[in-house]
Amino acid sequence: MNKRAFTLIEMIVVLVFISIIALMALPNITTMLKNSIDDEYKIFLDDVFLATEAYIEKYRDDYPSLNEDGAVTEIYMKDLVDEKLISTNLVNPKYCIDNECTSKKIATCTDTSCTVDDYTIKVTKDEIGKYKYELLIGINTCEYAVNQVVFDEGYSGDVKTFTPKCDGTYKLEVWGAQGGSANSTLLGGYGGYSKGNISLMSKTNLYVVVGGKAEDNATAGNTSTGGYNGGNSSTAKKINYDFISNGGGGATHIALDDGLLKDLSSHKDDNRILIVAGGGGGAFDYTKSTSYDTAGGSGGGNTGGNPVNTNTYSGYGATQIEGGTSCTISNYVHGSFGLGGTASTYSGGGGGYYGGGAGMGAGGGSGYIANSLLTDKKMVCYNCTTSNEVATKTESNTCHNSTATADCSKEGDGHAKITYLGS
What we know:
By secondary structure, this protein is of the alpha+beta class. Helices cover about 15% and strands about 25% of the residues. Strand 2 and strand 3 (about 100-105) form a beta hairpin.
């Protein structure tokens, strides 16, 4: 029996029915695909936000705005990758370029490094104290220009807070303050200079304390007030002879914790103290004899400077591990962490990482650059002991200036400067 073939009209009718069915099914297929991508994107967001929560838990203290209701804090995807809180193979199924969205990994990696795509996670805190997250494509452009000085301040007598607006590398420079001078020739020791580069995240608070110069030309029987941030005072003596004693200059430091240097002793070993420049020791003038007249020891690097004309009653410069020795003839206290020494009728020691000793001419405080977060670092001081070690690298020169000048010791009050070097 012969089989009957389909006529052309019958085939056209079948094709029309198939087309109608396909058109009816297409929206459902599209919806299914869209729902699948939406589900994948939700999983992607969950991964990002969980990593953000872990990052916040670890670095909460570095983002004070997290504790403020309604304040916005920005965390970058690069932060999460750098901390290994999220996989570089994570795929964003809705990566969009020019209105076209395609799946794409968040990072492109080689054997040695990864380039992370520009994402910002916006974090806010609602009225019941719960964090809310929003993923934004594109990191905000840094408003700093490369090599822009973003902090540049002298002595003010209080603690300043600097909060960088951009992730990147910053150069820290600090100058200690000069000790008190007895007269135009017997000068207080100059403040030391320290510098180093550090990688910082935006919104990380730095606390900057600039040292103050000690009072000059104390008259016999009166006190010469030591400089702010560790420079110790002196009391000149007038009995059968005249002593003109002067206080020590204060240190300048930058730290991740608030407070004067002497109050941060618990942070000596945890990288919270970033950098210190030592203050100079006070000068001494014995008006009835020149035997003990001397300029103060300058603020140092590895070691604080000794008085120019050392004698039996001198105070000495500090080191990286202990304060300078004070003269033991009178009521005395040796230099200590962040604080110059005293000897009741003699000149006060300079402030520093460790303070200089007091005496008939006082020692300078030491500087500090041993923090492992610092790179390209060194200290410079006036006619001082040098060091080639990375953690205590110290250069000696005869440069000193009343204006904060790189590689020069400081006359007068201390100074601090921070420069943005780029991402």
